[in-house]
Amino acid sequence: MCHVIVTCRSMLWTLLSIVAAFGELIAFMSTDWLVGFPRTPDAGFAPHGATAAGEAYRPTLGIYGRCVKLPHLKRRILCGPYAIHFGEIASGFWQATSIFLAAGILLLCAVAFISVFTMCFQSIMKKSIFNVCGLLQGIAGLFLILGLMLYPAGWGSEKVQLYCGADASPYRAGLCSMGWAFYTAMGGTVLTFVCAVFSAQAEIATSSDKVQEEIEEGKSLICLL
Q1: Which of 32, 27, 30, 205 is nearest to 119 (CA)?
Q2: In angstroms, rounded to a whole number, what is the distance separating the alpha carbons of residues 18 and 50?
Q3: How far apart, in whole angstroms, are the C-alpha atoms of residue 38 and residue 41?
Q4: How far is residue 52's CA from residue 75's CA, in Å, rounded to a whole number?
Q5: Which of 91, 135, 176, 179 reaches 20 to 30 Å from 5, CA-CA?
């Protein structure tokens, strides 16, 4: 018989797991990792474009995409990938970052999907789903940390210098500032470890004595605080 077990701690863990997965995915796909120095559309990527005629703006650069403003386009802002193939990503460090972040996000998305079904299934092959998911989240968090640590090492690439000036170098952003995607990725990484630790509380909540008493009474839907 399938018992649907819903507790505050298990539902909170499920919600946080989904938020962490979507946050990391959105950050990875965003172009707002680096915000370039001010320039004008007609100045292109000249080092002193901000002093030319026209309204200054700040282009953005992601791991594999960018947003720039072009004067001959009606939309004026063009966003999309600058790297068509994996080998065209700005630097080897960013390629490694892409691999580690993608691996971490894949694990987080798998856990987020599984977490939805933990209300009905609390174990798999006699192993607690919460403990297994917590372990996967811990591994994902390590992948994410490695990716974020390698990311600034790629700031010395020619691509980054076009956006951040010639002073840009590994772990020095030059004239650029960090965009919201970088901070979102960092926040998602912290949340991933919080979820990994909190999975133990979700396991305790769904296997408590009160839950067992409800099961012995023959209830199929169990809701506890």
Answers
A1: 205
A2: 41
A3: 10
A4: 21
A5: 135
